[in-house]
């Protein structure tokens, strides 16, 4: 399944010029923007591991010449002059910032007047059972402290909160909308396996589980997913993300 938000950001961003992707991770969105025709996309991230994954992803791609990945921290002054980019995007990273308004102000500084700022954040946890139920199942079996991963999930993702934070950074034309998707999986084991592949936090937790702990977590998860079970026993789990578009 295409990662929720990537095609929506690509559709919303103007590709006439140079685009910054803040907290680019393994450069999925970065590359998708280059694929859409942007002449230059610069991804920044603080994680060597994620940047390395990104470099591997772009290495053999025909658009690799249009993508630059740089180690930089969006909580500090970015190594770019004012107005360097025609647009800045950030998917699922802003909620990690200690001071998201300051981070957005810095994205605003490096984006040209009239340029776009587009961010995506997971909507609050109650709208994302695909994420919260596995975490709750793990917490019930191994304790909330060991299962205390991805605490920032859902932070700032409410429509009002997301709008307020972007406006507080001095951005104009702020519009927040909800993107929805359903994750269809065969059963709880399929859900767990998919999430371990997708979510680094869960992968690290899973690596610490004994065989019996993992089996108990899946049993508990099976008990928790009652509302999400379809007639054929498969699972249909809602996912919701907040997409914010604004101008400098
Ligand atoms: C959940 S991942 C999202 C990655 C990517 N944007 C995507 O949509 O797949 C969040 C990313 O933000 C990065 N990050 C966290 N704090 C950061 C900071 N202060 N400056 C730059 N990147 C940061 C992390 O290393 C991680 O790669």
- State Rg: 19 Å
Helix proportion of residues, in percent? 25-40%
Beta-strand share of residues:
25-35%
Structural class: alpha/beta
> Which CATH top level class of the domain at 6-123 and 151-179 and 241-247 fits?
Alpha Beta
**Average pLDDT value?**
95
General shape: globular
CATH topology of the domain at 6-123 and 151-179 and 241-247: Rossmann fold
Main sheet makeup: 7 strands, mixed
Number of strands: 7
Q: Strand order, main sheet: write it out.
A: 3-2-1-4-5-7-6
* CATH A-level architecture of the domain at 6-123 and 151-179 and 241-247: 3-Layer(aba) Sandwich
Number of helices: 9
Contiguous uncertain segments of 5+ residues: none
Q: What string gives the helices and strands in order?
A: HEHEHEEHEHHEHHHE
Give a list of the ligands.
S-adenosylmethionine
What distance separates the N and C termini? 33 Å
Relevant CATH superfamily of the domain at 6-123 and 151-179 and 241-247 = Vaccinia Virus protein VP39
General description of the model:
The two termini are 33 Å apart. The protein is globular, with a radius of gyration of 19 Å. It is built from 9 helices and 7 strands, in the order H-E-H-E-H-E-E-H-E-H-H-E-H-H-H-E. Helix 1 (6-12) crosses helix 2 and helix 7 (188-198) crosses helix 8 (200-206). The model has no long low-confidence stretch (mean pLDDT 95). It has a domain at 6-123 and 151-179 and 241-247: Vaccinia Virus protein VP39 (Rossmann fold), CATH 3.40.50. By secondary structure, it is an alpha/beta fold. The chain has a 7-stranded mixed beta sheet. S-adenosylmethionine (SAM) binds next to helix 2 and strand 2. Residues 23-25, 28-29, 44-47, 50, 73-75, 91-93, 96 line the site of S-adenosylmethionine.
